[in-house]
């Protein structure tokens, strides 16, 4: 009933979760659903039969389509800000039709629409399969968890200097970083000094963190590096080895296991060849993708279409810890200190 004043939230959360008066809780969201009353509000458009799939503009350019697409993107971005995820899923219902969307830091894969009022098999099958997935398969970063009450109490004391000023409070979290000896190091975080406002790209986050096991405070940097760039952690180790001054002192971390995008796998043949040529000229050896399809299979996938307006870059999740904790520039005491910081940065570079 679209005339009702009640707001509907068809998204999926864990059982027994109380959202209170909130319409949606992106910090707790498991599966996002967006509901539009009319099929004219579709954010995308499927090609007619016989259309050249590589040249088809998949985006619906009507005002309603643009507004819906922007709303879907905004929700997905907010979801990724509130949680630590490798990917996420959306069920998009509009009128009698449904699409599935898979989001990651490289972009989105969107399904062909189908009429669920005539045949709901695909929708039922998707929901059943989703209910059987592990946290990792649902897209959650399994190397991040909520802090216990005891850990949160420690963080309030040890990270008091970086207490959030915003009224929007984020939960205390714990990062688990695998190290070479097979053991994990855990770092408690409270406030992110800078959060990304976009869904795709580097999406860098920076946290002052506290390691209870060593009673030490550090800085944790989290982001998504392009496949053509060397891991920053390795660069820091190289700089340290060559005794370069004024660079962060590396503690631990690197590429996060299984943290790799998949949207890039299904780009056009032309871009895949360009990416392949770029990789062959690079000294880096990218991590294997989670996709079960090789390049030739991806080329032959019949459902893949859409003219790409921007380059889709494969990205790897990169997270590491350094000794010195960063501060915002507004805490610089004066122009002399500011120039000193810039000078030291140039030396480090």
Task: Tell me what you see in this structure.
With 349 residues, the protein is an alpha+beta fold. 25% of the residues lie in helices and 23% in strands. The strands form 2 sheets. Strands 6-7-8-9-10-12-11 form a 7-stranded antiparallel beta sheet, with helices on one face. Strands 1, 2, 3, 4 and 5 form a 5-stranded mixed beta sheet that branches. The radius of gyration is 23 Å and the shape is elongated. The termini are far apart. The N terminus is likely disordered.
Terminal Cα span: 60 Å
* Tally of alpha and pi helices: 8
Which shape, going by the Cα principal axes?
A: elongated
**What is the H-and-E element order?**
EHEEEEHHEHEEEEHEHHEH
User: What quaternary form is this?
Assistant: single chain
The proportion of residues forming helix, as a percent range, comes to: 10-25%
Q: Estimate the strand proportion.
A: 15-25%
Biggest β-sheet: strands ordered side by side in the sheet: 6-7-8-9-10-12-11
Largest sheet: 7 strands, antiparallel
Overall structural class, as computed from helix and strand content, comes to alpha+beta
Please state the average pLDDT score. 83
Unreliable spans: 1-8, 280-293
Query: In total, how many beta strands?
Result: 12
Radius of gyration using CA atoms only: 23 Å
């Amino acid at each position: 009933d679209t005339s009702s004043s009640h707001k509907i939230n068809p998204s999926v959360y864990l059982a027994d979760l109380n959202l209170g008066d909130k319409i949606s809780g992106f910090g707790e969201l498991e599966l996002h659903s967006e509901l539009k009353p009319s099929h004219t509000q579709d954010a995308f458009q499927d090609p007619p039969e016989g259309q050249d799939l590589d040249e088809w503009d998949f985006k619906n350019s009507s005002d309603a389509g643009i507004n819906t697409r922007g709303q879907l993107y905004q929700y997905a971005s907010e979801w990724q800000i509130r949680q630590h995820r490798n990917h996420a899923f959306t069920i998009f219902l509009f009128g009698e039709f449904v699409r599935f969307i898979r989001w990651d830091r490289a972009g989105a894969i969107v399904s062909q629409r189908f009429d669920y009022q005539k045949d709901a098999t695909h929708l039922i099958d998707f929901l059943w399969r989703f209910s059987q997935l592990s946290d990792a398969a649902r897209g959650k970063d399994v190397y991040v968890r909520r802090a216990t009450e005891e850990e949160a109490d420690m963080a309030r004391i040890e990270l008091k200097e970086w207490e959030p000023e915003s009224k929007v409070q984020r939960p205390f979290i714990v990062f688990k970083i695998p190290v070479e000896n097979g053991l994990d190091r855990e770092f408690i975080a409270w406030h992110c000094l800078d959060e990304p406002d976009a869904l795709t790209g580097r999406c860098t986050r920076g946290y002052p963190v506290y390691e209870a096991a060593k009673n030490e405070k550090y800085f944790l940097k989290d982001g998504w590096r392009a496949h053509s760039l060397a891991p920053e952690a390795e660069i820091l180790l190289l700089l340290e080895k060559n005794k370069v001054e004024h660079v962060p002192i590396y503690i631990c971390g690197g590429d996060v296991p299984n943290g790799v995008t998949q949207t890039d796998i299904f780009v056009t043949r032309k871009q895949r060849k360009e990416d392949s040529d770029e990789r062959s000229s690079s000294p880096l050896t990218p991590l294997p993708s989670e996709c079960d399809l090789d390049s030739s299979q991806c080329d032959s996938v019949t459902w893949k279409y859409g003219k790409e307006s921007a380059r889709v870059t494969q990205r790897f999740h990169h997270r590491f810890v350094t000794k010195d904790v960063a501060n915002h520039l507004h805490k610089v005491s004066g122009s002399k200190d500011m120039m000193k910081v810039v000078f030291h940065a140039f030396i480090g570079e």
